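Changelog note: in this version the structure field was regenerated for every chain. One regenerated record is shown below for reference.
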Amino acid sequence: MKKYAIGIDLGGTKILTALVDRQTGEVVDYVKKKTKKEKGADNIIRKITESINELLDNNNLKQEEISSIGIGAAGQNDREKCNLIAAPNLDCYNLNFREKLSPNFNIPIFLGNDVEIAAIGEMKFGAAKGYDDFVCIFVGTGVGSTIVKDGKIITGATGTAGEIGHVIVDLNGRQCACGAHGCLEAYASRSAIEKRIEGALKKGRKSCILEYLEPGKAITSSMIHKSIERGDELVTQCVTEASEYLSGGIASIINFINPKLIVLGGGLIDAVDFFYQHTIKKARSKSLPVPAEKIEFKKAALGDFSGVIGAAFLEDRKI
């Protein structure tokens, strides 16, 4: 077995590319670039290509020493064809990674959902190690999730199982990036919180988050954390509202799937402990009593690296 693989976590704001030791799960080296989705799919492919070449050059490795390139991307995937069918948060449609990357890399290429690869990473080396029955939920630009049963990813008939972010929580609610109305993602993601805060600021609400904002820059999880630490009323209100929606979605999962464990991760979970703690407390209170008592919650243990580590093992399709 070749020692190394390339794992790529393609998100709405960043592309994290890592050289992973498949024997230990260690991230040997990594490159992080901004996605800049507004520049199109070709720009994303260019950045991925540059990142892989940079890792190979910096570590004096040849392509023959890499077992695979694994990519995790938020959206609907055709895993067999390595095609990203639709990714609204990336503004990408029908992007075939194998076709685009193969001219430059004679290495097997695999594709999975972004939270799917995080779940694989956490199952092999992180918070879900030793568990074969759990749900992994990541909250960031969107809200994504993956179901693991008997140690295997449940992908469903069309490969889109586990899309908790697109569970409808309000039939006539806010429009989601996917085009539908009332999706959980439109209420519980960092992007949703950002929109609520910005809307309130435009109406004249006061908030210390203004001290951290830069013109043209997005509200980050770190800014939200700092504002809550200072007792900011507006930010706390918006985060609490998002948490209430997320906890309702999680309670539905607990009642419907009845997993042993729920792993929560992503930028918002990592940075804002108030959001995490409030969410799990409310999720228990909204669930049926017996599963609510038995369910375990853990934060993702691998941080930013859970996705790239998991992506390095996408070649093991039995997972």
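Spot check on this record: The chain has two domains: 4-121+305-311, 129-300. The chain has a mean pLDDT of 92.
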